[in-house]
Design goal:
Elements (H helix, E strand, L loop, with lengths): L3 H11 L4 H15 L11 H4 L3 H20 L4 H19 L9 H14 L3 H9 L8 H10 L3 H12 L6 H9 L5 H26 L2 H20 L3 H19 L2 H4 L9 H15 L13 H6 L7 E4 L6 H13 L4 E5 L3 H15 L6 E3 L7 H9 L2 E4 L1 H10 L7 E6 L9 H15 L7 E6 L5 H11 L8 E2 L6 E9 L3 E5 L8 E7 L14 H14 L4 E4 L6 H13 L10 H15 L4 H7 L2 E4 L5 H12 L5 E4 L13 E4 L3 E2 L2 E2 L2 H8 L10 E8 L3 H14 L8 H15 L8 H7 L9 H5 L8 H17 L10 H8 L4 H9 L1 H21 L2 H10 L3 H9 L1 H17 L2 H15 L14 H9 L4 H4 L4 H25 L10 H8 L4 H8 L5 H11 L6 H8 L2 H7 L10 H13 L5 E6 L14 E7 L4 E5 L5 E11 L4 E6 L7 E7 L3 E3 L1
Parallel strand pairs: 1-6, 1-7, 2-4, 2-5, 3-4, 5-6, 8-17, 11-13, 11-14, 12-13, 14-17
Antiparallel strand pairs: 8-9, 9-10, 15-16, 18-23, 19-20, 19-22, 20-21, 21-24, 22-23
Helix pairs in contact: 1-4, 2-5, 4-5, 5-6, 6-7, 6-8, 6-13, 8-9, 8-11, 9-11, 11-12, 11-13, 12-13, 20-21, 21-33, 23-24, 24-26, 25-26, 25-27, 30-33, 30-36, 31-36, 33-36, 34-36, 37-38, 37-43, 39-40, 39-43, 39-44, 40-41, 43-44, 44-45, 45-46
């Protein structure tokens, strides 16, 4: 028997990189290349040698040494390394193994347990989630359910087995006497029952949080292991040993242990919320009972509400749970929570996740759905407990009323790395700086989350900025729940080769897809990039792997969809849709919004999801639901992925390494690549470049990108934009003038590179989109940083000094060039002086509210009277459902708006007025014309809606109060309807314009807000119409009823904690010994008292007559003959005889 030092020396040597001729890498390649246990004949020599016996021996040796080392309290890092290698070894032995391999189930259990003990519970889940009747013992089957966190089924299996006659002492004794069972089988049955009894105690501990149950579970396992050792039951021995450590480890990382107990003095609300939070997560279909290694440090810090957290975790490493823990702490102090997300689509996704956790706790969760400045948004910000908002909406709300977040105790900055030179990034940086500079900022915690925060000095700068220079470190953990491999798909003339790494020694499939396959596999049509990409994706999808194809330019996506449809139609590949009913609803919505022949709809019909930001929101919502439910095998997506949208896959394909002529940056690549390998689905993610020509050159560039994949540089957007402006003004000679900044402060065209001589000559500067964009962002900085827009010009220098104090911009410039800081401030001041000299307070307020640049703002200010009248007329028509009036008013408004460069169509059309009327009439896309939809999406749904909103918020900023509902016309324009009630229905989630228009036509409702909409939906009239199943129309009835059900489902019944008074025992029940017991109501409501291992010991004297039991258990203590009942569930329970 080795001592600890000897064990650690042995384990260190045995797990060293390259041991046994690179056995572990060879095992991965070997298992990837074989099929049904058969190894290909064209394998490289270093893999062709049979390694199965070597792997088995090595795996058990490492398992023994690692368990022994853990028993003796050895190095955690070394132990985790050992378990990880054991997981890899037994995974390799079972991956693509023969269907006749008898040890497949047992080895999978060892692999799953080993990964779990190494901290990779999600990988363990993925290993064991696929089942094909794998000859598991009852104990292994129970362990599998525990690892899968399917605790409902686990309880059923445990209770059925442990209470069956087959394992009762009487039956087993009788069988032994009658020679119906031999000693070996008897011991096997006892070991199964003992191990399952231990699991039953542990499962009950996860429900109740009672650690005495964990201790008893360990005691039972210790006795069982002793019996297995003495009886030489080898398989049982290994499984019981693994369970012993898995139970201990899982309890130590459980939420029961790691969620702080009573961190606040005399805060009984926290104690209650903690219980409700734990029960909510425990009760999910797949129970969520523990924290990952990436979350433990954050969990240890969440209870300190003054500890601002900067959290850098890879994609899928559990950032949302950290936000939830921080929110739980804040909510328990009677303060509210604000979550800021960069995209509207991400806001909706975040809302669903957060509501599922906090809805059962009784908290109201809502995104800001309405138009900026709308009363609905203001109400949501004031009344909801948790609010999800984009930076733009929050910024406007704060400008309108700074007190609106006075009682917000936590701000979560999701995707906190979005600091940079783009307009949205600039506004994000301004928002954060303003939050940090508020006088009440010490009363508000900030938690900044990101998948790609930088290392080193940039991260230190960001952390110091967010933490306002308080001592403390960021949480920067590279751990991710699955592993990743980077490889290559290369066209070989008549086939495509799949490499699992850079070289063949990492494993490959020589003829992954072929022009003439020998079986029914996908058939390669040509070596064109789209053909190779789509056919390869199909091969993976047919093997059960979800595939994501990343296309760096959104406009290229539909081309890939069209090729997929062609390949299906021409017989090269088969549709991926297994059950047409799965996509029927989404196809119907797509056909209505996009037209039957749209490439997105055609692709969806064969099982391909095309995802990019400009698709209609009702269709995107439905597509994202299909993606989250795993109904789409191949997804082709745009750079929206890099902004946090949660789309993941087992295989990620990169057909392009450039966006036009620009290389994809390492920071973007890292964020996209992180999507490969879904927790609880995949053991590993495969990231592949598709090389259809110049293979060696592409391989070299691909792996250079992989190696150079780095975190975001995270330089202040202020710094970057002002540098760009300084460089351009320097090139044009403007800054070489002695009076450069005075000249800039007094001349609009100076900023566009016009020298005094050119201005005097009357030369107009040529149009330059980049220059205009940079100046608009500079204007956003100026107006965003000057909190009081009525500031006098002479006070501007001190205002900027104070606003930028301790900013990210100041911190980084201080380290780069202090002299450059002076130039930066002069640029800001010159632009501010130009704006102040040419505007009054009202104009400045209007420009800031509209979110446009100085020049566009002046133009809109000049047109404001006419634009306001047109807006009022369009809102009035929208509220009345007056199509002609709405079209006329919006046309008049657009005629003027289109003279402002910001809102001008890039490709004007003389037919736009005809398309506007067709769109607002609710006509089908087939009638409007598919080719015209891009114009409608770009110029009506986006630019014109933005213009209407800009005009409206300008008026609000200047003190205007609407006499009617705000934003009615914009809602109609966005949704393609002519009636505000119809538009509200679509915005609320009804995915059909036809249904919304029919509903309004049939019932003539008068709701004007979401609350009134809810009351109307719940009315008797609408309930009766909905019951017909043919209303609004036969084709849309299902969409309508689903929408109505989901609308009400958002209002979840909150859970309650009931400490039920002592309940007397039934006269037939003998009082059990003190301790905690299960309560199991039968169908008649009779509550049976069971031990943790399901032995019935009696019943209560009263039964449940009404209500949902929820989580319920009984506690017997020495001070009373009857048990105390604790119950957590929705509503109340009614009791009776």
């Amino acid at each position: 028997m080795e001592n600890l030092e000897e064990l650690e020396t042995l384990l260190t040597a045995a797990t060293a990189t390259g041991i046994r001729g690179n056995l572990i890498p060879r095992a991965g390649a070997w298992s990837s290349m074989r099929q049904n246990g058969i190894f290909p004949g064209d394998a490289p020599a270093n893999l062709a040698v049979e390694i199965e016996a070597d792997l088995t021996e090595y795996g058990f040796n490492i398992l023994r040494a690692t368990l022994s080392c853990k028993d003796r309290g050895g190095s955690i890092g070394l132990i985790n390394r050992g378990f990880q290698i054991v997981g890899q070894v037994f995974e390799a032995l079972t991956t693509n193994s023969s269907s006749e391999f008898i040890e497949n189930g047992h080895y999978k259990m060892i692999s799953g347990c080993a990964y779990h003990l190494a901290g990779y519970s999600a990988m363990a889940y993925s290993i064991l989630s696929t089942r094909s009747d794998e000859n598991l013992t009852p104990l292994e089957a129970s362990l599998r359910l525990l690892i899968l966190r399917d605790l409902d089924q686990l309880r059923d299996v445990l209770q059925q087995y442990l209470t069956s006659d087959e394992v009762s002492d009487e039956v087993l004794s009788e069988k032994l006497l009658e020679n119906e069972i031999d000693d070996d089988e008897l011991i096997g049955t006892i070991l199964n029952a003992s191990g399952m009894k231990a699991i039953a105690y542990f499962e009950f501990a996860l429900e109740t949080g009672d650690d005495t149950l964990v201790i008893e579970s360990g005691r039972i396992l210790k006795s069982a292991i002793k019996l297995a050792t003495e009886a030489t039951h080898i398989n049982h021995y290994w499984i019981l040993r693994l369970i012993q450590h898995l139970v201990d480890d899982l309890w130590n990382v459980s939420l029961h242990v790691n969620l702080p107990q009573s961190p606040f003095d005399d805060n009984t609300k926290y104690d209650q919320l903690r219980q409700l939070f734990l029960t909510t997560l425990y009760s999910r279909k797949n129970a969520e009972v523990e924290l990952w290694p990436s979350q433990l440090e954050a969990a240890s810090r969440v209870s300190d509400l003054s500890d601002d957290l900067v959290v850098a975790l890879p994609t899928s490493a559990g950032k949302t749970r950290i936000a939830e823990l921080a929110a739980l702490m804040t909510l328990s102090t009677e303060k509210r929570v604000l979550i800021v997300t960069p995209l509207r689509a991400l806001s909706a996704q975040t809302e669903r996740t957060i509501r599922a956790t906090f809805g059962p706790l009784g908290f109201r969760v809502s995104s800001l759905y309405g138009a900026s400045g709308s009363s609905g948004d203001q109400d949501a910000l004031r009344t909801n407990d948790i609010i999800i908002s984009t930076p733009e909406k929050l910024d406007f709300a704060l400008r309108s009323d700074p007190t609106i977040i006075d009682d917000v105790g936590l701000v979560v900055l999701d995707e906190g790395h979005l600091i940079g030179p783009k307009d949205r990034e600039i506004r994000y940086e301004i928002l954060v700086q303003k939050l940090l500079k508020r006088t009440d900022s010490t009363n508000r915690r900030i938690v900044c989350l990101s998948a790609i925060l930088p290392e080193g000095e940039p991260l230190e700068d960001l952390t110091a900025w967010i933490r306002k220079d308080k001592d403390g470190t960021p949480i920067n953990i590279p751990w991710r729940p699955t592993r990743q491999r980077f490889g290559l798909l290369s066209y070989q003339g008549d086939s495509v080769k799949l490499n699992y790494g850079e070289l063949d020694r990492s494993g490959f499939i020589k003829r992954f897809i072929e022009i003439e396959p020998k079986d029914d596999s996908p058939k390669l049509r040509s070596g064109e990039l789209k053909d190779v990409t789509i056919t390869s994706a199909w091969k993976f999808a047919e093997d059960g792997k979800r595939v994501l194809i990343f296309i760096p330019v959104a406009n290229w996506i539909e081309g890939f969809g069209k090729v997929a449809v062609e390949l299906v139609n021409d017989g090269f590949i088969k549709p991926l849709v297994k059950d047409p009913k799965d996509i029927e609803r989404a196809v119907g919505i797509g056909e209505e919004w996009l037209g039957q022949d749209h490439p997105v709809v055609a692709a969806l019909k064969i099982g391909v999801g095309l995802h990019y930001a400009k698709l209609p929101n009702p269709f995107l919502r439905e597509l994202e639901l299909l993606l989250s439910n795993g109904k789409i095998g191949v997804t082709i997506a745009s750079p929206t992925l890099s902004q946090g949208l949660n789309i993941n896959a087992a295989v990620l394909l990169f057909p392009y390494l450039k966006r036009g002529t620009e290389k994809i940056e390492g920071e973007e690549f890292r964020n996209i690549a992180g999507r490969a390998g879904r927790a609880f689905v995949d053991v590993e993610g495969l990231v592949l470049h598709v090389a259809h020509n110049s293979i060696d050159w592409r391989r070299r560039n691909w792996f250079e990108l992989v190696q150079s994949s780095r975190a975001r540089d995270l330089q202040s957007g202020f710094l970057q934009v002002i540098n760009l402006i300084i460089n351009r003004l320097s090139r044009n000679g403007i800054l070489k003038q002695a009076d450069a900044f005075e000249y800039l402060a007094n001349n609009v065209n100076a900023w566009k590179g016009q020298t005094p001589r050119q201005v005097e000559a009357g030369n107009e500067p040529s149009a330059d989109y980049d220059t205009d964009a940079q100046l608009e962002m500079l204007d956003s900085m100026v107006l965003g940083l000057v909190e009081a827009l009525d500031t006098d010009r002479e006070d501007l220098p001190s205002i900027f000094d104070e606003a930028l104090k301790s900013s990210l911009w100041e911190r980084q410039l201080n380290k780069i060039d202090v002299e450059m800081m002076k130039t930066h401030k002069q640029i800001l001041l010159a632009r501010a002086n130009l704006i102040w000299a040419n505007t009054n307070l009202a104009t400045r307020k209007g420009i800031f509210a509209m979110g446009v640049g100085f020049e566009a703002g002046l133009k809109l200010d000049q047109l404001s009277q006419d634009l306001g009248a047109s807006l009022d007329a369009s809102d009035t028509a929208a509220l009345a459902g007056d199509l002609d009036g709405l079209v006329t008013a919006i046309t008049q408004l657009a005629d003027q708006i289109y003279t402002v460069s910001t809102f001008q169509p890039k490709k004007p059309s003389k037919h736009w007025k005809k398309w506007l009327k067709q769109w607002l009439s609710g006509l089908s896309i087939d009638t409007i014309g598919l080719k015209n939809m891009k114009y409608i999406e770009d110029n009506f749904v986006y630019k014109l809606v933005w213009a209407l909103e800009a005009i409206r918020v300008r008026r609000i900023a200047l003190g205007w109060e609407a006499e009617t509902v705000q934003g009615a016309a914009a809602a109609c324009l966005e949704t393609g309807t002519s009636n505000y009630q119809s538009a509200l229905l679509v915005r609320a989630g009804l995915p059909s314009r036809i249904a919304s228009l029919t509903v309004v036509s049939d019932t003539n409702p008068n709701f004007e807000s979401r609350s009134e909409l809810g009351e109307w939906l719940a009315s008797t009239e609408i309930a009766k119409l909905s019951e017909t199943n043919t209303w609004p129309t036969a084709e849309t009835a299902d969409l309508w009823n689903t929408f109505r059900d989901q609308y009400f489902r958002k209002e979840q019944r909150p859970l309650r904690i009931n400490q039920i008074a002592k309940r007397s025992l039934h006269p037939s029940t003998r009082r059990p010994s003190n301790g905690i017991y299960r309560l199991h109501p039968d169908r008649a409501g009779v509550c049976h008292i069971l031990t943790p291992s399901f032995e019935t010991v009696g019943r209560l004297n009263m039964r449940i007559t009404q209500g949902i039991p929820g989580s319920m258990y009984a506690l017997f203590t020495a001070d009373h003959p009857n048990p105390a009942i604790r119950r957590i569930g929705p509503g109340k329970l009614e009791w009776g005889k």
